[in-house]
Specification:
Layout lengths: L2 E2 L2 E2 H19 L3 H16 L13 H11 L3 H12 L15 H13 L6 H14 L23
Antiparallel strand pairs: 1-2
Helix pairs in contact: 1-2, 1-3, 2-3, 3-4, 3-5, 4-5, 5-6
Length: 156
């Protein structure tokens, strides 16, 4: 069996297959099916052996949360972003992406949408720092989204 770093190649590629299935289902209007595929991609990714670089480079939580947010499921999207950033105690350390610009962008958007004022300023500052280091403009945690909030007060 071929391996990529310390993971079987099939295990790494299964993450991408589940992501692809989820994004295709989403854009065909089968949203609940899409969320199932994307949750499965998260589970597969979480169960890959820890490696540097990551065995799968695109965190599946970014697509899951972005597409949840796209359909107005902001509370669940917020939790997914918190998990990805390591702000909750539910995800093992090797599956967290602290200060990841894509997840920070999504979390700030979720908090902005619900009018959160206590935690938001600190996260906006972290996002501004991360965006200053980004080499591309960021408008969503995943380009797979069909709608994007055009302006967030912290960085645009």
């Amino acid at each position: 069996e071929r391996r990529f770093l310390s993971n079987p190649t099939r295990a790494s590629l299964a993450v991408g297959a589940a992501l692809l299935d989820g994004e295709l289902a989403y854009h065909q209007g089968r949203h609940e099916e899409a969320y199932g595929h994307l949750r499965h991609a998260v589970e597969l990714d979480d169960n890959l052996s820890y490696t540097e670089p990551w065995a799968w480079m695109h965190p599946p939580r970014h697509a899951l949360a972005a597409l949840l947010l796209d359909q107005g499921h902001a509370a669940e999207a917020e939790q997914v972003y918190r998990d990805d950033l390591g702000l909750s105690a539910t995800v093992q350390r090797c599956a967290q992406h602290p200060d990841n610009v894509w997840a920070l962008h999504g979390l700030v958007e979720c908090l902005s949408r619900r009018g959160e004022t206590e935690e938001l300023p600190a996260l906006q500052a972290r996002l501004a720092t991360a965006m200053a280091k980004a080499d591309v403009p960021i408008s969503s945690s995943c380009l797979c989204r069909t709608s994007v909030q055009s302006a967030l007060s912290c960085c645009h």
